[in-house]
Protein backbone atom coordinates (compact mmCIF):
# COMPACT_ATOMS: atom_id res chain seq x y z
CA UNK A 1 0.00 0.00 0.00
CA UNK A 2 1.41 3.41 -0.94
CA UNK A 3 1.88 6.15 1.62
CA UNK A 4 -0.98 8.14 0.08
CA UNK A 5 -3.39 5.22 0.35
CA UNK A 6 -2.23 4.58 3.91
CA UNK A 7 -2.90 8.19 4.86
CA UNK A 8 -6.33 8.02 3.27
CA UNK A 9 -7.17 4.83 5.17
CA UNK A 10 -6.04 6.43 8.42
CA UNK A 11 -8.20 9.48 7.75
CA UNK A 12 -11.24 7.30 7.06
CA UNK A 13 -10.61 5.41 10.28
CA UNK A 14 -10.48 8.65 12.30
CA UNK A 15 -13.69 9.93 10.67
CA UNK A 16 -15.54 6.67 11.30
CA UNK A 17 -14.29 6.60 14.89
CA UNK A 18 -15.72 10.09 15.55
CA UNK A 19 -19.02 9.32 13.81
CA UNK A 20 -19.52 5.98 15.55
CA UNK A 21 -18.55 7.36 18.95
CA UNK A 22 -21.02 10.23 18.51
CA UNK A 23 -23.78 7.83 17.44
CA UNK A 24 -23.18 5.61 20.47
CA UNK A 25 -23.14 8.51 22.92
CA UNK A 26 -26.23 10.04 21.29
CA UNK A 27 -27.98 6.68 21.65
CA UNK A 28 -28.40 5.91 17.96
CA UNK A 29 -27.00 2.59 19.12
CA UNK A 30 -28.16 1.41 22.54
CA UNK A 31 -26.16 -0.55 25.14
CA UNK A 32 -25.86 -4.22 24.14
CA UNK A 33 -26.69 -3.50 20.46
CA UNK A 34 -24.60 -5.58 18.02
CA UNK A 35 -22.35 -3.52 15.76
CA UNK A 36 -22.09 -5.30 12.42
CA UNK A 37 -19.01 -4.32 10.43
CA UNK A 38 -20.93 -4.82 7.17
CA UNK A 39 -23.89 -2.69 8.30
CA UNK A 40 -21.64 0.06 9.64
CA UNK A 41 -19.57 0.09 6.43
CA UNK A 42 -22.80 0.64 4.50
CA UNK A 43 -24.03 3.28 6.94
CA UNK A 44 -20.83 5.35 6.80
CA UNK A 45 -20.09 4.53 3.15
CA UNK A 46 -16.60 3.12 3.76
CA UNK A 47 -14.86 -0.24 3.55
CA UNK A 48 -14.78 -2.59 6.52
CA UNK A 49 -11.14 -1.81 7.35
CA UNK A 50 -11.72 1.67 8.89
CA UNK A 51 -14.80 0.25 10.64
CA UNK A 52 -12.68 -2.48 12.20
CA UNK A 53 -10.01 0.03 13.26
CA UNK A 54 -12.61 2.38 14.78
CA UNK A 55 -14.22 -0.48 16.70
CA UNK A 56 -10.85 -1.56 18.05
CA UNK A 57 -10.15 1.99 19.26
CA UNK A 58 -13.58 2.28 20.88
CA UNK A 59 -13.02 -1.09 22.55
CA UNK A 60 -9.89 0.32 24.21
CA UNK A 61 -11.95 3.27 25.46
CA UNK A 62 -14.61 0.97 26.87
CA UNK A 63 -17.48 2.09 24.66
CA UNK A 64 -17.70 -1.21 22.77
CA UNK A 65 -16.97 -4.79 23.79
CA UNK A 66 -16.00 -7.78 21.66
CA UNK A 67 -18.07 -10.88 22.39
CA UNK A 68 -18.15 -14.31 20.76
CA UNK A 69 -20.49 -13.07 17.99
CA UNK A 70 -18.67 -9.79 17.33
CA UNK A 71 -18.69 -6.24 18.63
CA UNK A 72 -21.49 -4.83 20.78
CA UNK A 73 -22.12 -1.46 22.40
CA UNK A 74 -20.77 -1.89 25.91
CA UNK A 75 -23.01 -1.97 28.94
CA UNK A 76 -22.37 -1.56 32.64
CA UNK A 77 -24.16 -3.09 35.58
CA UNK A 78 -25.39 -0.78 38.32
CA UNK A 79 -22.73 -2.25 40.61
CA UNK A 80 -20.00 -1.40 38.09
CA UNK A 81 -21.28 2.16 37.71
CA UNK A 82 -21.26 2.67 41.47
CA UNK A 83 -17.75 1.24 41.78
CA UNK A 84 -16.49 3.64 39.12
CA UNK A 85 -18.12 6.58 40.89
CA UNK A 86 -16.63 5.41 44.18
CA UNK A 87 -13.18 5.91 42.66
CA UNK A 88 -14.15 8.99 40.66
CA UNK A 89 -15.52 10.84 43.70
CA UNK A 90 -12.15 10.75 45.47
CA UNK A 91 -10.26 11.83 42.36
CA UNK A 92 -12.69 14.65 41.52
CA UNK A 93 -12.29 15.94 45.07
CA UNK A 94 -8.52 15.91 44.66
CA UNK A 95 -8.74 17.61 41.25
CA UNK A 96 -10.91 20.42 42.65
CA UNK A 97 -8.56 20.87 45.61
CA UNK A 98 -5.51 21.11 43.33
CA UNK A 99 -7.38 23.41 40.94
CA UNK A 100 -8.09 25.87 43.78
CA UNK A 101 -4.39 25.93 44.61
CA UNK A 102 -3.28 26.26 41.00
CA UNK A 103 -5.80 28.90 39.81
CA UNK A 104 -4.38 29.34 36.31
CA UNK A 105 -6.03 32.59 35.05
CA UNK A 106 -6.77 31.35 31.54
CA UNK A 107 -8.23 28.05 32.74
CA UNK A 108 -10.22 29.84 35.46
CA UNK A 109 -11.81 31.97 32.77
CA UNK A 110 -12.69 28.83 30.79
CA UNK A 111 -14.11 27.20 33.93
CA UNK A 112 -16.38 30.18 34.58
CA UNK A 113 -17.56 30.09 30.97
CA UNK A 114 -18.27 26.35 31.27
CA UNK A 115 -20.20 26.86 34.52
CA UNK A 116 -22.20 29.68 32.95
CA UNK A 117 -22.95 27.59 29.86
CA UNK A 118 -24.20 24.84 32.12
CA UNK A 119 -26.65 27.29 33.71
CA UNK A 120 -28.08 28.17 30.28
CA UNK A 121 -28.89 24.66 29.08
CA UNK A 122 -32.42 23.31 28.89
CA UNK A 123 -33.16 21.11 31.89
CA UNK A 124 -35.04 18.81 29.52
CA UNK A 125 -32.07 18.21 27.19
CA UNK A 126 -30.02 15.40 28.79
CA UNK A 127 -27.51 15.24 25.94
CA UNK A 128 -26.72 18.97 26.20
CA UNK A 129 -26.39 18.58 29.96
CA UNK A 130 -24.05 15.62 29.54
CA UNK A 131 -21.85 17.56 27.12
CA UNK A 132 -21.75 20.63 29.38
CA UNK A 133 -20.92 18.43 32.36
CA UNK A 134 -17.99 16.80 30.56
CA UNK A 135 -16.62 20.18 29.49
CA UNK A 136 -16.72 21.49 33.07
CA UNK A 137 -15.01 18.48 34.62
CA UNK A 138 -12.36 18.36 31.90
CA UNK A 139 -11.36 21.93 32.75
CA UNK A 140 -11.23 21.20 36.48
CA UNK A 141 -8.91 18.28 35.72
CA UNK A 142 -6.72 20.54 33.55
CA UNK A 143 -6.68 23.15 36.33
CA UNK A 144 -5.35 20.57 38.79
CA UNK A 145 -2.00 20.81 37.00
CA UNK A 146 -1.54 17.05 37.39
CA UNK A 147 -1.51 15.31 34.02
CA UNK A 148 -1.67 11.84 35.61
CA UNK A 149 -4.78 12.74 37.59
CA UNK A 150 -6.29 14.26 34.44
CA UNK A 151 -5.64 11.12 32.39
CA UNK A 152 -7.05 8.75 35.02
CA UNK A 153 -10.20 10.86 35.32
CA UNK A 154 -10.55 10.91 31.55
CA UNK A 155 -10.30 7.12 31.46
CA UNK A 156 -13.03 6.79 34.12
CA UNK A 157 -15.26 9.27 32.27
CA UNK A 158 -14.77 7.25 29.07
CA UNK A 159 -15.91 4.12 30.88
CA UNK A 160 -18.99 5.93 32.20
CA UNK A 161 -19.79 7.65 28.91
CA UNK A 162 -22.23 4.90 27.97
CA UNK A 163 -24.62 6.05 30.74
CA UNK A 164 -23.85 9.76 30.69
CA UNK A 165 -27.18 10.72 29.09
CA UNK A 166 -29.10 8.61 31.64
CA UNK A 167 -27.57 10.64 34.47
CA UNK A 168 -29.26 13.81 33.17
CA UNK A 169 -32.68 12.39 32.29
CA UNK A 170 -34.20 14.01 35.39
CA UNK A 171 -34.85 17.77 35.11
CA UNK A 172 -34.68 18.06 38.91
CA UNK A 173 -31.29 16.38 38.96
CA UNK A 174 -30.04 18.68 36.18
CA UNK A 175 -31.09 21.69 38.25
CA UNK A 176 -29.13 20.33 41.20
CA UNK A 177 -26.14 19.65 38.95
CA UNK A 178 -26.12 23.27 37.78
CA UNK A 179 -25.97 24.58 41.35
CA UNK A 180 -23.39 22.00 42.43
CA UNK A 181 -21.10 22.90 39.53
CA UNK A 182 -21.43 26.58 40.36
CA UNK A 183 -20.41 25.92 43.98
CA UNK A 184 -17.34 24.02 42.79
CA UNK A 185 -16.41 26.87 40.46
CA UNK A 186 -16.84 29.53 43.17
CA UNK A 187 -14.63 27.63 45.62
CA UNK A 188 -11.90 27.16 43.01
CA UNK A 189 -12.14 30.78 41.85
CA UNK A 190 -11.60 32.15 45.36
CA UNK A 191 -8.71 29.75 45.96
CA UNK A 192 -10.20 27.73 48.81
CA UNK A 193 -8.89 24.15 48.35
CA UNK A 194 -10.85 22.61 51.23
CA UNK A 195 -14.14 24.16 50.17
CA UNK A 196 -13.49 23.12 46.55
CA UNK A 197 -12.76 19.56 47.62
CA UNK A 198 -15.87 19.48 49.84
CA UNK A 199 -18.10 20.85 47.04
CA UNK A 200 -16.71 18.31 44.54
CA UNK A 201 -17.19 15.40 46.95
CA UNK A 202 -20.76 16.49 47.77
CA UNK A 203 -21.49 16.67 44.05
CA UNK A 204 -20.17 13.16 43.44
CA UNK A 205 -21.93 11.73 46.50
CA UNK A 206 -25.24 13.23 45.36
CA UNK A 207 -24.71 11.55 42.00
CA UNK A 208 -24.04 8.24 43.71
CA UNK A 209 -27.29 8.52 45.69
CA UNK A 210 -29.14 9.41 42.49
CA UNK A 211 -27.76 6.31 40.76
CA UNK A 212 -28.70 4.11 43.73
CA UNK A 213 -32.31 5.28 43.34
CA UNK A 214 -32.41 4.11 39.70
CA UNK A 215 -32.88 0.71 38.05
CA UNK A 216 -30.88 -0.89 35.24
CA UNK A 217 -33.09 -2.12 32.39
CA UNK A 218 -31.49 -3.46 29.23
CA UNK A 219 -28.25 -1.63 29.95
CA UNK A 220 -30.08 1.67 30.54
CA UNK A 221 -30.19 3.49 33.86
CA UNK A 222 -33.82 4.52 34.37
Overall description:
The chain is mainly α. It folds into 2 domains: 3-73, Winged helix-like DNA-binding domain superfamily/Winged helix DNA-binding domain (Arc Repressor Mutant, subunit A); 78-221, Four Helix Bundle (Hemerythrin (Met), subunit A) (Up-down Bundle). The chain is 71% helix and 5% strand. Strands 1-2 form a two-stranded antiparallel sheet. A two-stranded antiparallel ribbon has the order 3-4. Helix 1 (3-25) packs across helix 3 (48-61) and helix 4 (78-102) packs parallel to helix 8. It is globular.
Short description:
This protein has 9 helices and 4 strands; from the N terminus they run αααββααααααββ. It has helices spanning 3-25, 37-44, 48-61, 78-102, 105-120, 126-143, 147-160, 171-189, 193-212, and strands spanning 64-67, 70-73, 216-217, 220-221. The longest helix has 25 residues, at 78-102.
